[in-house]
Amino acid sequence: MLLTWVDGVAADTLPADDRGLNYSDGAFETLSCHEGRIQHEDLHRSRLTQALTALGVTSASEQGERLFANAGQCLETVRHTGVARLTITRGSGPRGYTPPELAQLRSILTAYPWPESSHSALRCAVANTRWATQPQLAGLKLLARTEQVLAAAEAAAAGWDDMIMLDSDDHVISSSRANLFMLLDEKVTTPCLDRCGIAGTRRELLLTQILPALNYVFEVRPISLAECLSADALITTNSISGVTPITQLGQSRLRSDAGRDWVTALQRAMAEAST
Known about the structure:
The chain is an alpha+beta fold.
């Protein structure tokens, strides 16, 4: 059953002058929930605060805390287990790009059941759609997700599970819906996201907690497609599917004993961190 709250009240409509609808003026978080508890809420709250700060929202940290607390109360009330999306817009405003001087943020919280099926492994190709370069907004989960929508449409049309997305300099950035990590020659690498892409909460969890705890050597840097094709293992990470291996990239198969052991270790550690 789909549940929706607008500003903490059960509702399924929005005003036509909402700036999120008209200008994608806002940010969102996709949340994994268990019996009303948001998993890794601190990481999501921090990223939302960063997005609100980048959008020039007054008292972004305090507003982020308040909005997450309100969302948490709604989810706890119904003891929601599944997926939730918290969308924050700049609220209603007049026509034109210029934000209203005294904006009233609007929250839209939607609770979904768990997806009926998830892939234990992914078959991917390389998308024609590239990430646009915008260092000022890189890493943030803002509402405008046009590049990812187009890449996901490519995957659906061609029968792939997901698409690997590059930037304008041919560096690998992400899949259409997840971050990427690569194991190559016993070293773990994830793409640098200082020019484009989204810095996921599970990416943050791997970099700051899981990989150090497992004593893996890792680095954040630009990654080429050629490196991915020769990797021992390639995984995606996001808040809903956790750690998922990519076993095919175009016509290349990605399988090795070292890669399988690494994927299993990360999946186990991610599951333990989310309980």
